[in-house]
Amino acid sequence: MARRDRGDRLGATPGAGQPGPAGAGHRDRDGQRRRPGIGRGGGDVDRRRALQPGRDGADPGAGVRTRPHHRAGGGPVTGQQVSPYVGAAAVVTADDVAAYYEGATFYSPADGNASKASLIDWVASLIDDTGPVVLHRPAALPADALSAAICVIGSGSALADLPPSGDEFSGAVRELEQHVGGRMGAVYPLAAATVSAMAPLAAAADLGVPLLDCDGMGRTFALVHHTAMHLGGISTGPLVMRGATGESVLIEAPDPARADALARPSVEVLGGWAAFAGYPGPIGALTRAALPGTVSRLINVGRLLMEPGEADVVVGRLSAITGTRRIGRGRIVELEHLSRPTDFTVPAHPSSVIIDESGGAILRLELRSEVVAVFSDGALTAAAPDLVCLFDVDRGRLSPLDSLQPGDLVDVLVTPADGVWYSPEALAMVGPASHGIPLDHPRKR
């Protein structure tokens, strides 16, 4: 299937939001090397421990296991202690980046992997140089410190053709700081999925600030104001977009939909993709508005997907930690495409995938920039904001939508979005009707 380009699913007080104590092995903003071993959260950081239940807000784990771990561009790192699937990592190290990327891919399965190796190698090398990035829940940091949401906005294929030079994301944050008159004490993903999850990790390492264990979407949506922060009353802007050419655009618009409308043509001028920094504001506001724990879970899900196993085993593991369920298994029998874009809220080129399910049903998947609806014998079974992905049964891996072929044997998997997305206001924004499907979401029936 053809690649679908898309936007990523995409009152500050001057002087507030000073960065916390220096992190392990990081440089200060003047470029001086910090003393290694000093954690940004205070005290030494144990790179191997999981967040402790009751103390760090993580779910209890099943113990620590030892197994081989792989990084792009290198051999296995054996004997490394890793946290269990259920729980959260206290830091992200260079050795975690590959699993982090795989987990991010699960929460945005529409994208291919054209820039996978280069992105993993870039971010891992950056963390190798600066030291591990510390994760904090928003409640663990000063409420009046400033933070910003980071993502990649624009086309994934453009990012592969014009890769980042390295400072686009930290540069966008610095420009945003100049505009709001205060330093950012932390950054977090606008969407903890796909390459937009990698961007704030790189920015945190480069800036020497913590990465907040939260995001605005819990998956990806098409527009920059389709976030839990927007639903919680936090302003989208001002926002900065910085391109790979070093040029940048500042947008201030009181209407968030208008900000998105201004951003899209600007991205094209900047080269097809841009580093986004927006939603500047106090960290304390995120404790009520952002989605918690969505960054640390990426590593756990990624480790699961990197372990070999039969499809039934992998789906069972995913079900245990993400709530994923299988709608059906069958072979793709037809791919349908429309050459014209939709004229609905979310711009996209509609496509459909027809699957002959092994139990006798016919599954029809409606695609925009993601799978937005699944019909089983004509009945709506799942729909946005549900996260729908396809798992290649024969190859034992997720199937990006741009790789599907007739004859592929796939499992159709559905993972529930965060509960905030099933409110009437949120469904009006990202539900089936926003994609031109005038039906109630199955949860409303």
Q: Would you mind describing this structure in some detail?
A:
The chain has 445 residues and is an alpha+beta fold. The protein has two domains: 65-296, CV3147-like domain (CV3147-like fold), CATH 3.40.1610.10; 322-444, CV3147-like. It is built from eleven helices and 22 strands. The protein has helices at residues 97-106, 116-130, 156-161, 168-180, 194-207, 228-231, 256-269, 286-289, 296-306, 311-322, 424-430, and strands at residues 65-66, 69-70, 76-77, 81-82, 91-92, 133-136, 146-154, 184-189, 211-212, 214-215, 239-242, 248-251, 273-282, 291-292, 325-337, 351-357, 362-367, 371-376, 379-383, 387-392, 397-398, 409-415. The strands form six sheets. An eight-stranded antiparallel β-sheet has the order 19-18-17-16-15-22-20-21. It has a five-stranded mixed β-sheet with strand order 8-7-13-11-12, sandwiched between helices. A hairpin with a 4-residue loop joins β20 (387-392) and β21 (397-398). The protein is globular and about 60 Å long.
Assign the CATH topology of the largest domain: CV3147-like fold
The dominant shape is: globular
State which percent range the strand residues make up: 15-25%
- Could you give me the name of the CATH homologous superfamily of the largest domain? CV3147-like domain
Count of separate structural domains: 2
Q: Given this structure, which CATH class of the largest domain is correct?
A: Alpha Beta
Main sheet? Answer: 8 strands, antiparallel
Q: What is the helix content? A: 10-25%
In the CATH hierarchy, what is the architecture of the largest domain at level 2? 3-Layer(aba) Sandwich
Number of E-type strands: 22
Cα separation of the termini: 33 Å
Structural class: alpha+beta
Q: Enumerate the strands of the largest sheet in spatial order, edge to edge or round the barrel.
A: 19-18-17-16-15-22-20-21
Number of helices: 11
Which segments are poorly predicted (pLDDT under 50) over 5 or more consecutive residues?
Answer: 1-88
CA radius of gyration: 21 Å
